[in-house]
Structure formats: structure tokens, C-alpha cells
Amino acid sequence: MDKSKLAYTHTYGCRANVSDGEKINGMLAEMRYGFTNIQDEADLILFNTCAVRENAENKVFGNIGALIHQKRRNPDLIVIVCGCMVQQEHITEKLYKTFPFVDLIFGTHVLHKFPELLNEVIINKRRVTDISNTETITEDLPIRRESEFKADVPIMFGCDNFCSYCVVPYVRGRERSRKPNDIINEIQGLVKDNVKEVMLLGQNVNSFTPSFPELLKEIEAINGDFRITYMTSHPKDLSRNLIDVIANSEKISHHLHLPVQSGSNRILELMNRGYTVEQYESIINYARELTPLISITTDIIVGFPGETRTDFEETLSLIKKIRFDSAYTFIYSKREGTKAAELPDTVTSEEKSAWFREMLDVLAEIGDTAYERYVGKTLRVLCEGEGRTGQGQFTGKSREGVIVDFNSDNTDIIGKFVNVKIDKALKWAVLGRST
Ligand code: SAH
Ligand code: SF4
Predict the structure, then answer these.
(1) By the 8 A CB rule, do 422 and 433 touch?
(2) Whose CA is nearest to atom 4 of ligand 2?
């Protein structure tokens, strides 16, 4: 292949998709593609899509539609759509019909076949679609990582939880865990290459088999100074044992991203989440008892079908009680094929938007003072780069996952750990000086 061919790839959605995107880029690099950020100069354009909410899908349709002019100018341009969206048959049909210039569509299960499928497009000059369902795990795909000192490591794929609003189990298939040895070997290699933070990825890392706490202990035992983070934890499977492991560890992050989704037990049941508000609170209390500086973040959905003002107010009360450090917030989006799509939805979208704004105000007010507990403390920070806020020379993240902007006399610290004494709390960040 001509060495000068340039690829423009864009990934939407969650960390699992970003991780797939790094493998796609790894395979493209092996096929000797170079990379560009300028869509107009690309010979190959790839969208790695997300299906979790409808507006993410609409954005992709818009972006693909806009390619028609470039394809007219350059008929050799290769256009590829992959990821969760196309794993839904009705979407792939629509894409195929609406956009005849899309050359290749492939789903989440056949990532490893990408080079083969692309060759078929190039050699046979025909459109190719592969959204077949093969729930195997392919190890050792090439990876083109986005950071030199931070790495995402998927430990499991798919999801078996079938939360009633969620499309993920349909587009990512059944839950399957990688072999602990494969994970350990990969992380040993990363640590040797000077990676300082590994993020273990799964839709529900707590249900990793044989055991997530045991896996964490094995990773902790790898020699070297590095940090272990993970996402996402599902409250129904988060055991006290896991919190004990975290509290006794040197390397595991003290940040818990624990999506609660709603503060109403009635809605949690309709969502098929498998826990109550009381169980959720109890596990948070235990985590705070053992690791007092821990930061707690969450995901919340507003406007689930049948949610009433009373249910919504219960969510507000829970937010105020837990005082989340931050939250990803979403207005419910109906996903075809899910259980919730069949439930009657009576609240208007105007009303949902008003509730949503009300919730953001409550979260913002908590955010104003949440980080004050770090003032006067010394946090261990992985320096990620030069500061961008103008309030410190450098920026990084603490073990608690908190953004720390700080000054330091030593300037050779990017990609290294430094201790930072915190002297001021801002909204969503803290300021300090290295000690
Ligand atoms: N596996 C993770 C979350 C994956 S999706 C977990 O269970 O926590 C990320 C977030 O998107 C979810 O936590 C949820 O808050 C939101 N989400 C998923 N489906 C949604 C939908 N149909 N409408 C609105 N938000 C949704
Ligand atoms: Fe979706 Fe629930 Fe699985 Fe998370 S646990 S991916 S919200 S079905």
C-alpha cells in the first residue's frame, strides 16, 4: 500500500469504544496508513460510533451525510462506519440505503477482521458489511495508544445486566472476561514501557470472572510505580471485600465511579438495576469510612418512562445526601428493542428538560464546595501536562481522580508522580504546589 495514504478516524462514546478505536488505529498503522486530524485531506474516513443515546446516533448520521461532497471530489475516498450503532440491524439497513458512498460497515464483534474487510473493499471495489456476532476475544491486536503514560486495558467485554433502558447488551453481546494471565502480561509490558496509569475497562468490572478483587491484587503485585483505575463499577456487584482490597492497596485509585441512575426505588426496579437506594448508600458509607478522601462520581438518568415528580425529587434528595463529586447526567433516550421502550412515557420533553436543569443546579451547588476537603492535604498527582487554566504551571490527576493544577520548581515532571500540597479548592479542580 502507498505509504502516504492518510486516515481520519473519530470515536464517539465510552472508554470501551475509545479502546476499540486505539486498536482500529493500530491496525491502520500496520497497514501503513498515516493519520490526520483534517478530514478534508484524508484518503480514509472512519467513524467508530456509539448507540447509547439517540442524539449520539443523529450526530453520526449528520457527519456521514456531510461527506457526500468530499466523496464527489475524491471518488477513491474510503468511508467506514463501525462500532455499536451498526450492530443494530435497523440502523445498518438505514445507513446502507441512505448513504451509497459508505464503503464498509463492520460491527463490534469483528474488530479483528477489519484489515481483511478493508482489503476486500479496496481489491474488489465493492461495498462490504459484516455485523456478524462472534463472541470470541481476540488477544494481541495492535494498539496505537493515545497517551504515552496512561493506558486503557479492557478486562471484559459485553454485558449481561439488561438494564431496561440500555442498548449495550444488545450491541456488545454477552459478558465475557479476558484470562487474568493475558491481562497481567499486558500490564507488565505497559509498566516496563513506563506507563504510569492503567485503567481497567468493563461495563461492570465487579462481575469479572473469576474475581475482580483477586485480579486487582495480582495487578497490585506487579513491580513498579503505577496507578490502577477501573470503570465501570455496578452497585449491585460491588462487594465490601472489594473496598477492603482498595483500602489496603498502594496503587488502586481512590475514585469510585458508581452509576446510581435514580434515587427512587420504584424507578430502580423498573430500570432492572438490582439494588435499592439504601444498599447504594450503605456501600458508599463503607467506602468513605475506609478511605475518607475517596471521590465518588455517578451517572444519572432523568425522565425514565413513568418517572414522576416525586421520583425525581427522591433523586435530588439522594444527590444532596451523597454529595457526589460530579455526575454524568442524561435525559432518558428511548432505545429500540429495550424493555423500557415499551413502557408508557407521560412526562413531556419540556418538563424533563426543566427537571434536568434543576438537577444540574443542585449538582453545581454541591460542586462549589465539594473539594474543600482536600485543602491542606498533600495529594499524589500524576502530572499529565502543562496547565491550561492559567492557575498553575502543570496539571494532573490525584489518586482520587481529582484534577490538580499546580506549580513546581522541578519542570521535568510530565508523566511522573509528584506530591502536591493543596491550598485552594475550585469548582471541579484544586490548586497547589509540589512539595
Ligand atoms: N455499564 C455502565 C454504563 C454504560 S452506559 C453502567 O452500568 O454503569 C453509560 C451511561 O449512559 C449509563 O450509566 C446511563 O446513565 C446512560 N444511559 C444508558 N442508556 C441510556 C438511555 N437509553 N438513555 C439515557 N441515558 C442512558
Ligand atoms: Fe447498560 Fe446496565 Fe450493562 Fe451498564 S450494566 S452497560 S447500563 S445494561
Answers:
(1) no
(2) 203
